[in-house]
Amino acid sequence: MANLFDLTGRKALVTGGATGIGEGIALGLAAAGADVALTYRSHPPEATLAAIEALGRTGAAVRADFTGMDEAAATEVVGFATDALGGLDILVNNAGIIHREASVDMPLEDWRRVVSVNLDSVWLLSQAAGRHMVAQGRGKIIIVSSVLASQGGLMVPAYASSKHALVGLTRALCNEWAGRGVNVNSIAPGYTATDNTQALRDDPDRSKALLDRIPAGRFAEPSEMAGAAVFLASDAAGYCHGSVITVDGGWLAR
Predict the structure, then answer these.
(1) Which of 90, 131, 134, 152 is 20 to 30 A from 174, comparing alpha carbons?
(2) What residues does 13 pair with on adjacent strands?
(3) Which pLDDT value is given to residue 1?
(4) How far is the C-alpha of 74 from the C-alpha of 58, rounded, in Å?
């Protein structure tokens, strides 16, 4: 059974892999045996690369800003990972941003910035990686959505809309690529201790309200998303197509 989860020899690209959930997933994949390339924007990747290499795996990093990403930039990122690792078997679309503001006040430029990073770049990277994976007859694409793909949230209209759309994209790509050897699935994290939730966790009233709602009684650690990612990237998930795995401490069950 353990062999089903073994990623030895697999090549993975994790966007936003130098911090937060992306780092947790990148290290989880490496611990399971995969070589890992990651993208970063501002957070230095050296510590994450050192941790990957300490696990006996190859690591590589490329700086990328996904705001306004076009097809050429997406192809370049996927090409970097493929060249650096000698192939590409797994893509984890994790990079994302959030903007909190009342809907009546939110400028269009902020809406477009969130959607550009959270949705457009995921589509372009999935398309670029998908071409490669369909051609080789195998591959795993994992899209990191959110529990807000099932809810509206508070003062995050662009974020919630983009995360809803990612579930739709997961299912749409599944319908086209499942029969061609490519698994496309999604992970929906709950409230996790990352930069995106720092403001919420720093607000005593909001933090208490969130924790009171989470049956587990705490925020997730980024590393706790790695198990779902390793599963979806492995042979154990060979018949998982278009699935959304929720990792939320029971938030949506409440």
Answers:
(1) 152
(2) 37, 91
(3) 74
(4) 22
Q: At what angle do helices 20-31 and 226-233 cross, to 10 degrees?
A: 50
Residue 244 structure tokens: 């959304």
Contact 93, 16 (CB under 8 A): no
CA contacts within 13 A on the Cβ side of 73:
16
From first to last of the 254 residues of the chain, give the pLDDT tens digit: 779 999 999 999 999 999 999 999 999 999 999 999 999 999 999 999 999 999 999 999 999 999 999 999 999 999 999 999 999 999 999 999 999 999 999 999 999 999 999 999 999 999 999 999 999 999 999 999 999 999 999 999 999 999 999 999 999 999 999 999 999 999 999 999 998 888 889 999 999 999 999 999 999 999 999 999 999 999 999 999 999 999 999 999 99
Instruction: Please pick, among 40, 159, 191, 239, the residue that the annotation labels catalytic.
Output: 159
CB 119 within 8 A of CB 165: yes
Cα separation of 87 and 81, whole Å?
Answer: 7
The CATH homologous superfamily to which domain 2-249 belongs is NAD(P)-binding Rossmann-like Domain (3.40.50.720)
Provide the 10 A C-beta neighbour count for residue 243.
16
> Three-state DSSP class for 37?
strand
> H helices of the chain, where?
20-31, 46-54, 71-85, 108-115, 121-136, 157-177, 198-202, 204-213, 226-233
Give the CA radius of gyration of the chain.
Answer: 17
* 191 is an active site residue: no
- Quickly count: other Cβ atoms within 10 Å of residue 95's Cβ: 26
Task: Tell me the C-alpha distance between 183 and 179, whole Å.
Answer: 9
